[in-house]
Amino acid sequence: METVIQQLKIVLSTSFATYIKAQNYHWNVTGPNFAQYHEFFGEYYTAVYESVDEYAEHIRTLDAFVPGSLSRFSELSKVEDELRIQTPDVMFKNLYEANEIMRKELNIARDLADDQKLRGIVNFLEERIDYHDKMHWMIRAFIVRVSSD
Question: Which of 7, 17, 82, 143 is the right S-S partner for 109, CB 3.0 to 4.6 Å?
Answer without folding.
Answer: 7
